[in-house]
Amino acid sequence: MPSLEVQIGSLRLKNPVMAAAGTFGFGQEYREFFDISALGAICAKTVTLRARTGNPPPRLWETPCGLLNSIGLENPGIETFLKEELPKMRKLGTVIVASIWGEEPGDYGALAAAVDKADVEAIELNVSCPNVPGKGFVGAQAGFTADVVRSARAATTKPLWVKLAPEGEVLAAALAAQEAGAQALCIANTFRAMAIDISTGRPVFANVLAGLSGPAIKPLALRWVYELFPRVEVPLIASGGITTWQDAVEFIMAGARAVQVGTGNFVDPLCTLTMVEGLKKFLEERNLECWEVIRGCAHRR
Ligand SMILES: Cc1cc2nc3c(=O)[nH]c(=O)nc-3n(C[C@H](O)[C@H](O)[C@H](O)COP(=O)(O)O)c2cc1C
User: What predicted TM-score, i.e. pTM, was given to this entire model?
Assistant: First the structure.
């Protein structure tokens, strides 16, 4: 029997398929569709120190093979997450990853300290949300990323993952995160993009720019996994347009240790489950014992 298991730093997952932050809520809506314990992990919606109402509508806009979103990190705040959502999430029977975002590095420390006492297996530091107004998001920033990871590292002993932006100082931010103590890097969040409503002649979104996700960005995200794999030591978690088991295999062949599924959940709520089954069959049919045999094989000459 092949093993679907993957090791992400100190954490072992039963398979490499996770739900991506912000696209799976706190898991409750998807509970009605399938047994979520089949997944390797769920990343919870990103939470902040205080509740946020998010951006004004419209917040979603479909594009060819993609989705633009400008949610703006609507969330109930860390306290409500820990008190009300986490206990329900725990019953889903899989690994739970908390995701946190702050305006300043110190906010990440405060959030990590709060999560440190909670029953989650890891913390993902979201330093890559393009939809938070007035913060002058410019993509990955090595200095800021290092400060964020250091602040969180000092506040918790839990594994820290860092979710990077796909633009800006991507490699430098990846190396800075690793140096500061990240156990894994998630590459990547959405790409900044926009749409114009031709009936009004104005940008669709109040913030003009929004985050592009879905199959449209898959080759772009794949490029980042491929480029980072030989340059970093910590495991890479791929995110960007992954909707099928074949997509997941492609990312593993580029070097990913695990994958996160976001927009795919909106198109087919069962797609992560189908992905796990497809990956199992893939290993079985090829008599592969584990992922190590093919991880990064696209780099071999
Ligand atoms: C509606 C929506 C909300 C999102 N919210 C978050 C979030 O709260 N935190 C986060 O780190 N990423 C968030 N993301 C980014 C996704 O987790 C994922 O990294 C990105 O969409 C690329 O993957 P995909 O193409 O599979 O969707 C969000 C994406 C979408 C579409």
Answer: 0.98
